[in-house]
UniProtKB/TrEMBL annotation:
Gene that specifies this protein: ycf4
Name assigned to this protein: Photosystem I assembly protein Ycf4
Membrane-spanning residues: 27-49, 69-91
Membrane topology: Multi-pass membrane protein
Keyword Cell membrane: no
InterPro entries per the UniProt record, alphabetical: PSI_Ycf4_assembly
Family in the record: Belongs to the Ycf4 family.
Keywords from the named record: Chloroplast, Membrane, Photosynthesis, Plastid, Thylakoid, Transmembrane, Transmembrane helix
Length: 190
């Protein structure tokens, strides 16, 4: 009986979690970039001080000018990039949720950004102001499969997560279910 009541309560409310920066590919690239940056930096520094700082590499024989300077420069850039990637992972930039509530007639879109005055983004729209759910699909070298909330004043608010594109059948299913849930039309499916 309790499960049945819970399902009735939840039938008018739908909440989709959005994965932020804490995904495997970001951990992978932040780690690889840091290891490569440290290796380049220490190789360039070893050529300057004539002391082996990396045990598995003979970098004393490298001339400091120009090879050592370039290695220190590229190492510094890679370390800086990896620090940026690790900070976006720690702060979980891009995480949030999409909440569709038929009881209150409100759609809430929440995302977490970079620290500062505008760290969180909270958008609220009334369901009666929504014209359609739009799907934008472009296959090719840069595949694009996105779902948008289209308002009556022709604004398009993205609902899909950033990263790997969803399978075509999956995005069509999600868009169809959401359009039925909100009682609006579905655009972009031919």
């Amino acid at each position: 009986m309790m499960k049945y009541i819970f399902n009735i309560f939840m039938i008018n409310k739908k909440k989709d979690q959005i994965l932020g920066s804490r995904r495997f590919s970001n951990y992978w690239w932040a780690t690889i970039t840091f290891i490569g940056g440290i290796s380049f930096f220490l190789t360039g520094l070893s050529s300057y001080v004539k002391l082996e700082l990396l045990p598995f590499r003979n970098s004393i024989d490298i001339l400091f000018i120009p090879q050592g300077v370039i290695m220190v420069f590229y190492g510094t850039l890679a370390i800086s990039l990896s620090i940026f990637l690790w900070l976006t992972i720690i702060w979980n930039v891009g995480a949030g949720y999409n909440e569709f509530n038929n009881d209150s007639g409100v759609i809430t879109i929440f995302r977490v950004g970079f620290p500062g005055k505008n760290r969180s983004l909270l958008l609220e729209y009334r369901i009666k102001d929504i014209q359609a759910i739009k799907i934008d699909i472009k296959d090719g070298l840069t595949t694009k499969r996105e779902m948008y909330l289209k308002t009556k004043d022709d604004r398009e608010i993205p609902l899909t997560r950033v990263g790997q594109p969803l399978r075509l059948s999956e995005i069509e299913k999600q868009a169809t279910e959401l359009a039925k849930f909100l009682g609006v039309v579905l655009e972009g499916i031919d």
